[in-house]
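Box 3.1 A note on notation
Throughout this textbook, protein chains are presented in two layers. The first layer is the amino acid sequence; the second is a token string describing backbone geometry. Keep the layers aligned when reading.
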Amino acid sequence: MMKLRVRTIGDGLHHSEVVVSIHTNNGDEGLALGRRSLQDGFIEVGYPIRQEGDSYLVELPRETSTGNWRVWVDKDQLEFMPEEQVA
């Protein structure tokens, strides 16, 4: 599994939700998700679907505010999760 760096930008509609910003190659995307999904400024994503240079296509756990499930991000936005950390 991989972790994607995000930035908290506000509260969600429910007390258990948070809104984060993902820095993608096409600009920032907003994503509302459960607070428990956010860990130290990262969210879990699957392994990249595709790679082009230093950019990776990743699938998000939920749809962004613009309707995207997959986004291109720079390699420096991702961190590999050792298997023992995968829940």
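Strands lie at 2-5, 7-11, 17-24, 27-34, 42-45, 50-52, 55-59, 70-74, 78-80. The first strand starts at residue 2 and ends at 5.
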